[in-house]
Structures are given as structure tokens and as C-alpha cells.
Amino acid sequence: MQPGEYDAVLGGSSPSPMGAMVLGGLEGVKQRFGSAIVAQRIAALLEAHKYGQIELDLLIQALQDESTQVQKVAYLRLQTRQESKAKRALQAYDPYALFESLATLKGHLSGVTAVAISPDGRSLISGSRDEVIKVWDWWAQEEIFTLKAHSFVYAITISEDGETFAIRGRNHVIKAWSLRTGQQIRPEKGALRTIASVTLTDDRHLISSSQNAIKIWNLKTGRELCTLQGHSSLVTAVAVSADKQMIISGSEDRTVRVWGVA
């Protein structure tokens, strides 16, 4: 059976013979996407925007490409598409293998023990062994203010409206502050999670520290998806953003790292 005029892929993954003519237009895009050469497949995806629905089909197919470079191009371009088909493909895709270190925040004088991220994904909070809490604007990659916790920080949580945050210290004592001003306030009732080095993103993934790395597991298959490496010492705290697009981690190397796709 011969491929139709609007099939997304011509088929075949063998590279074009040396000196063979590469077609232009839609047929050229299809030919390059079927190439065994990663750069050719990426070039096809970048050119496919001229062909509407064909681009969407190629991008979705590229999420299953053996090359993470190709997957990354498809993932980022699909995020700009509004079709329900594109959104379903992104929802089914695990992007964690594409994650890399986006920022390293330095300033703590001791190892980081707990971290949290605001609902809008911009403000980060970290606590360290020296009983200090730091609030960061990670987009600007700068510290906003520092507070004394007067306690070892076991856990941090940020309110759903992003206005306040609370910590759990020694003897289960809860303290809270305004995220905007740093003014201490009366804490609301509620439990804070106590295991700062393990977190669940949803019913599909578990993120955990593993020595100086972070491991991400698919709970349905029980398999490790990927390992994020960059810290130089034990990872002691992890947290994930509300939209699942970012992970933050704290370490005994006294840094906070931000992970995502860029």
C-alpha cells in the first residue's frame, strides 16, 4: 500500500544516499523527517510549520523519536499549539528525560534541608541547617530576603494563593510568614509533609533524592525514567511546581537547583 498524499512520514529511516537530491516543499519535509540523521529530523520539524495539520502530526510522532533532541524540539513546539490533540499528546508524554539544570542558587552557608515553590512558579523558599530561610526570585536568579527560623527546618509549604508560607521546625512547631513582606504571622492549622527528599507529582510519578542526584520513577511501570545530575553532594530536598513543568532541589552542597526544559 502506497502512502497517501498527506501522510506525515514517507517511511524508512535510512539516510539518503550520498549525493541524492533532497526534495523541497512538503515532500522534502517528509523525506528529512524519515532520515536517520538527527539534524535532518529536527530540520524537518522546524520547517513543518508551513504545512498546518501536517506539522501537528509530525510533532506528535516526534515525541516518540529515539533522540531526546528531536523530542525536545517537538515538546517545545507543541506547547505553542492550542489544539486538543496537541494537549492530549503533551499530557500523555513524560518530559522529565528532557529536564536540565536551569539555575543554581547560592547563598546558604550550610546544607539545604527543605524547599518549596510558589503556585506561579516564580518564588522559591529554602531552609538550611544553619536555621536560615531564604526566599528567592528564581527568574531573576536573586535572593529576595533572608529570615531566621530559630530552628532546624524539616518542611516548607506555600499557601495556594501564594501569599504565605509555613515551616515545620523542631518538636513539630509550625511558624508562618508573609511571602511578600517576610513578616511573621500566625500559622494556619494544617499538616506539613515531613519527608522533604521525596515527592509525588500525581498518580504517575515519584521524584526522590539518590545520593547527589534526583531520580524520577514511573509509578505505573515501576521503572526509572531518568536521573538528574548536577549537585556535588547529597540531595536532601525536592519539590515540584504546580504545573509539573519544574523541579527544585536542595543539597548538602548548600545550593538550590531549578530543573526544567529550556
From TrEMBL:
Report the CDD domains cross-referenced here. Answer: WD40
Q: Where are the WD repeats?
A: 105-137, 228-262
- What Pfam family does this protein match (any one)? WD40
InterPro entries, from UniProt?
A: WD40/YVTN_repeat-like_dom_sf, WD40_PAC1, WD40_repeat_dom_sf, WD40_rpt
Q: Is Repeat set as a keyword in this record?
A: yes
* Keyword Transmembrane helix attached: no
This protein's UniProt keywords: Repeat, WD repeat
Question: What's the name of the protein?
Answer: WD40 repeat domain-containing protein
